[in-house]
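Catalogue entry: protein

Sequence with per-residue tokens
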Amino acid sequence: MPQKIAVLHTSFVFVSVEPVINELIAELLPGAEVMHFVDSDVLATVVREQGISASSEQRMVHLAQAAEAAGADIIFSACSSLGPALDVAARNVHTPVVKIDEAMAILAASGGTRIGVLATVPTTLSPTSDLIQLKADELGRDVKIEQRLCAGAFDVLMSGDRPRHDTMVIEQAVDLAKNVDTIVLAQASMGRLAETLREKTGLPVLSSPRMGVEYLAERVAELAK
């Protein structure tokens, strides 16, 4: 019987701008039934408020509850900025919740010692860095994390100007590479640049979409047993 996967979105980026999540699920989980639950304003609210308010947290809880009510077998969060709110949402539903950046954080923490976290949305820097630090602590590894914001790039992407977005991200990554041994792309929307950034920097560049959906596929396989 096909698994029902609910994908939670906090903007339209993976719905109308970057269809990478759908493409990866189609590739790695063929036959799965995918449902999308979108609060197209909550990421903008978190950016505007410079953090996750109780109201924003509750909106993510409602998204997860809606996904559960629709019969989802598993919930996949496509947003890194709202990671802490997803932890709260997971405690308010019985359906398993998988975060897109979980597998990436484990890999970063197990491989790097000076880890650069590059983001295009300011509110993603701390949740991504905190998740990597948490995984490093669990692994008993000592890591140093440097945060770098590529200011304005996400707005440029959402306006439809991919080339300018890409140029901005590449410039920041090349500069960040001077100080670190691993680069983590905090926004899944930067994922398609990973190979280019590896070539430009000569460093491991970790991106969440494929790793995140591979981890989702593993969890789905476990549920099917």
